[in-house]
Amino acid sequence: MNIPNALTLLRIFFVPMLVGALVGDARQVWLALAIFLAAALTDLLDGYLARRWGQITTVGTLLDPIADKLLISAALIALVQVHAVAGWVAILIVGREFAISGLRSIASSEGYIIQASDAGKTKMVLQVVAVALLLVAMEWPVLKPYADLTLFGVVASSLFSALLYFRQFWSKIDHRVKRRRRREYLAMAREQRLQQLRVKMAKRAAAATTESRTSVR
Question: What are the chain's domains?
Answer without folding.
Answer: 3-176 (1.20.120.1760)
